[in-house]
């Protein structure tokens, strides 16, 4: 999205004589050369590495019993070392994309080796232990090679650990204590993102944190926790969005994501409060707070953060329709509800148009 936007902007500026064509082409070339920039070829190469790793492991597993035990262990170990050493050789020669694919193959093979060797030697432990070892190994390899591709793999593996905990029903308070380490996994992935520059992988950490908080709320389901979500989300949003905040510059360097996800957490808390409270009066009060927060968020960060801007629009529209259905719609019936909905949508459209005119005076960051 961002690549297409700057390309269109450069084309417009070149046509107006503000930027020379060679300069615009040079800037686009520099952007495409960045490791963090999106590339279809890089994505397809990584997917090919994952598929090749799966094919190799399936081939080994199919002939598992025909191989002597020592040959199995030595073969899998040698395969992992071949991938990593080949990746190091490619990095030394500047073949970064091929190196990234080889690193992914080595890390995926390591995960398969854990399962195969554990099965062969009947090692004690469960899937959670295996996933933790795999995640730790991926993180070590990421630091060793400073690989953006392995940062993404580590992010997905952190989700895999969380998923295994849920599938194996070890997420209760009396269950596996690993569930309380999930926020630490988020911090580790963000640290890897900072170290390698794989900025898109940070969304995996943010979403994992929100997923863990959702699990926490499902486990507790108390009104006070919903209030904490709202307050923490709102405070973090203000800290990341207000220029007077000491964390503002740091949040800006991290992109639009800190403001967006903290804003989303505040709305998750308000949605949970809608579920917890009883009575029309309480619902209306929470709805009024939600509308106020959405408009305030648009006003504070909407100019520079397109993600916050559109989230605020969506929440404002959804909350307005919800309040209409709970109040006037329930009184006037179905036809009255649709009439009110039409009026409400028209009002929202007018508000959005007015806000867009005001916000268009300054640039807006479209991505997160």
What is the topological layout?
Elements lengths: L1 H14 L5 H12 L7 H23 L6 H24 L3 H26 L5 H19 L2 H20 L14 H15 L5 H19 L2 H19 L6 H6 L3 H20 L3 H22 L4 H21 L1 H32 L9
Helix pairs in contact: 1-2, 3-5, 4-5, 5-6, 5-7, 6-7, 7-8, 7-9, 8-9, 9-12, 10-12, 12-13, 12-14, 13-14, 14-15
What brief labels describe this structure?
mainly alpha; 368 residues; disordered C terminus; globular
Tally of DSSP β-strands: 0
Strand proportion, as a percent range, falls in: under 5%
What is the makeup of the main sheet?
none
Give the uncertain stretches in residue-range form: 363-367
Shape: globular
Mean pLDDT: 78
Alpha-carbon Rg, integer: 25 Å
Distance between the termini: 10 Å
Short description, anyone?
With 368 residues, the protein is mainly alpha-helical. It is 79% helix and 0% strand.
Task: Give structural notes.
By secondary structure, the protein is mostly helical. Helices cover 79% and strands 0% of the residues. It is built from 15 helices and no strands. It has helices at 2-15, 21-32, 40-62, 69-92, 96-121, 127-145, 148-167, 182-196, 202-220, 223-241, 248-253, 257-276, 280-301, 306-326, 328-359. Among the domains are: 1-33; 221-368, no CATH class. It is globular and about 75 Å long. The chain starts with a helix and ends in a 9-residue tail after the last helix.
């Amino acid at each position: 999205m961002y690549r297409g936007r700057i390309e269109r902007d450069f084309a417009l500026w070149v046509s107006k004589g503000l930027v020379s064509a060679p300069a615009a082409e040079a800037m686009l070339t520099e952007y495409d050369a960045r490791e963090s920039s999106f590339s279809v070829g890089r994505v397809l190469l990584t997917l090919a590495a994952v598929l090749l790793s799966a094919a190799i492991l399936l081939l080994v597993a199919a002939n598992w019993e025909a191989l002597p035990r020592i040959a199995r262990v030595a073969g899998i170990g040698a395969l992992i070392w071949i991938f990593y050493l080949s990746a190091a050789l490619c990095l030394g020669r500047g073949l970064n994309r091929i190196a990234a694919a080889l690193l992914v193959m080595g890390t995926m093979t390591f995960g398969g080796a854990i399962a195969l060797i554990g099965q062969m030697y009947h090692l004690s432990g469960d899937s959670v232990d295996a996933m933790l070892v795999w995640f730790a190994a991926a993180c070590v390899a990421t630091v060793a090679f400073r690989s953006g591709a392995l940062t993404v793999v580590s992010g997905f593996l952190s989700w895999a650990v969380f998923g295994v905990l849920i599938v194996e029903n070890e997420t209760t308070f009396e269950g596996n204590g690993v569930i309380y380490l999930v926020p630490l996994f988020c911090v580790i992935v963000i640290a890897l993102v900072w170290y390698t520059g794989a900025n898109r992988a940070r969304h995996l950490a943010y979403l994992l944190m929100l997923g863990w908080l959702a699990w926490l709320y499902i486990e507790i389901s108390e009104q006070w926790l919903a209030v904490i979500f709202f307050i923490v989300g709102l405070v973090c949003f203000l800290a990341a969005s207000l220029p007077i905040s000491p964390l503002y510059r740091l949040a800006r360097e991290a992109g639009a994501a800190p403001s967006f996800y903290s804003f989303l957490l505040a709305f998750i808390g308000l949605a949970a409060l809608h579920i917890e409270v009883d009575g029309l009066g309480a619902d209306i009060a929470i709805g009024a707070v939600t509308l106020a927060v959405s408009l305030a968020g648009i006003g504070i960060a909407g100019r520079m953060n397109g993600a916050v801007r559109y989230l605020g629009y969506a929440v404002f529209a959804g909350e307005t329709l919800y309040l209409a259905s709970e109040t006037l719609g329930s009184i006037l019936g179905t036809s009255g509800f649709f009439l009110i909905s039409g009026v409400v949508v028209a009002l929202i459209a007018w508000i959005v148009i007015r806000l867009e005119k005001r916000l268009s005076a300054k640039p807006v960051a479209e991505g997160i």
